[in-house]
Automatic annotation (TrEMBL):
Keyword Transcription set for record: no
Keyword Glycoprotein: no
Domain of life: Eukaryota
Gene3D superfamilies named among the record's database cross-references: 2.40.50.40
Protein name (record): Chemokine interleukin-8-like domain-containing protein
Domain Chemokine interleukin-8-like: 35-90
Entry keywords, A to Z: Cytokine, Signal
Species the sequence originates in: Cyprinus carpio (Common carp)
Signal peptide interval: 1-27
Pfam families: IL8
Any Gene Ontology CC annotation: extracellular space
GO molecular function, one term: chemokine activity
Gene Ontology biological-process entries: immune response
Length: 139
């Protein structure tokens, strides 16, 4: 009788430990997301797109670009010709928003104009920094 009771207690303890492990990882077992793209489409999305994220291969998940639309996420083939163009478009919109926020800061006008001129003449696509040129600490 004591053996059965000890065995039941051991099984209960194991069940509790497993439950804690699963809930402690937000439901992710073996570092896998709960929801992911397991298949993709190369068809261009016509819905308004509000953002995107890249998903890496981690079975059962596949390499994908997840576009967030007004009707929910859509899984797209990352090598589709339109996908790269859409990512660049979304990134440029994001850059424009960052630059607009930068323009609304209380930075001295001469410093602001110098930064804008530098940005316009620059060939790289890095966004403008909002750090003051008089501040020696980096963000």
């Amino acid at each position: 009788m004591q053996l059965n009771q000890k065995m039941m207690m051991s099984l209960a303890a194991i069940a509790v430990i497993m439950l804690v492990m699963i809930t402690g990882t937000n439901g992710q077992i073996f570092n896998r997301p709960i929801e992911c793209c397991t298949s993709v489409s190369d068809k261009e999305i016509t819905l308004p797109i509000t953002g995107f994220k890249l998903q890496k291969y981690n079975p059962p998940c596949v390499n994908a670009v997840i576009f967030f639309t007004t009707e929910g996420p859509r899984c797209s083939y990352w090598k589709a010709s339109w996908v790269n163009q859409k990512i660049q478009e979304l990134n440029s919109k994001s850059l424009m928003n960052k630059e607009w926020k930068f323009l609304n800061t209380k930075m001295p006008m001469c410093s602001l104009l110098l930064r804008l001129e530098t940005k316009m003449n620059s060939t790289d696509s890095t966004p403008l920094s909002t750090a003051s040129p008089h501040n020696s600490t980096s963000a």
